[in-house]
Records
---
Amino acid sequence: MQAVPWSQVRSWRCNMCGICCRHYDVVLKFPEWLSIVKNFGIEYTAPSLDKIFLRRRSDGSCTFLLETPKASFCGLQHAKPKACKLWPFKVLNRPKFGNPNKAAYHYRDRKLFIYVDPACTGLRLGEPTREFVYSVIPEFIEIALNSCRRQFKTTAVL
Ligand code: SF4
Ligand code: SF4
């Protein structure tokens, strides 16, 4: 599914459906890989020729996914890889997915391009709410720019 520009999104909130943890590969940065190897073991990671991923179970789900009848949780909550923290948002320097005018977002002195993956069930399309524009999106930007110390809007807490 084509990523949609932020200005077409009314709101976003994680409802803990777990879809993103069952169907997508998670690429690890080297320090993330090292931390997982130290704390859990190398068997929780899966190298390829040029990337390292979190290992997935035979059904495709992440090995850290915890599921109850009502909700899905991340077992890596406090060491969640950046790729997971950013999902379903894409914070880019260029308008990689088109619609540059609708994707442009001015953050401090920077012009960024923000898209959202519509496969996330927590997304609602429409006119953006103030909370979405001024609270949710900036938090994702801060995560992308490594300036966010704690997540408030962007994760479900165990
Ligand atoms: S981020 Fe989206 S797809 Fe992933 S668990 Fe939350 S609502 Fe579901
Ligand atoms: S590390 Fe957590 S958030 Fe990321 S895919 Fe695994 S269970 Fe989901």
Note: The mean pLDDT is 92.
---
Amino acid sequence: MLQPQPAVCLQGEAAGTGFEIVHIGPREARTYFDVGTYIWTEKARTPYTIISRTDEAEEAVIAILNAKTDNQLGAFTSRYGSLWHVREQRGGDCVALDELRRVVGDLRRLSDTLLAGDFTEANPLPNGLIMSPHAVAFNLWLVPKEDLRGFSPMFMTYSLYTFLAHELITRALGNRPLLVCNACHDYQRSARKDCKFCSPKCRQANHRATRASQPGRSAAKVRGRPSVSAAMTSAASTAT
Ligand SMILES: [Zn+2]
């Protein structure tokens, strides 16, 4: 789905066959690489394409910002490929989990900065090398239009990191920064900028927590009606 603005096209590669979490201890580190925990995926990768400002692009951005556990980071890596430096070992691709967490932290900070509105568009661009974790790089394609009269500009990248950072920035410039749920702190898409919760379940959990902390309402009173609140929570979660 091309839009009037130049689109960005990610040329990605991913194993798509699951992952393993591999621990390298001091003894194995002599044969392999540094001591640490790694995400291992199969060497054979399948190419895929995602275009900016599509549902697929939004899904990828939300998936990485909300990936907190080793398994969530592994599932993301299996589906979208490596976000960061890959070491070829043990017949597959290994990504160090601590490095991956640092890079995901950079993307979360970028999203939070954009949500707070603390950014300016650099104009003109600074001279020389831009040393920033949010500096990104693209190649430019001129794609023939379907009627073969003229060309459409298309920015292309092989870098998953570049694509995700660009997606976060263009969302914010289009006044659609990703919001953060006040209860579970996951990043979420929403049409409304004042939306505070990702789901009725989180709205309900926050409501209960606020009510329990209010003076004048004893904890025993709140605890005294577990069946009602449990029923409401399960009704709310099935509604989402
Ligand atoms: Zn939530």
Note: The radius of gyration is 22 Å.
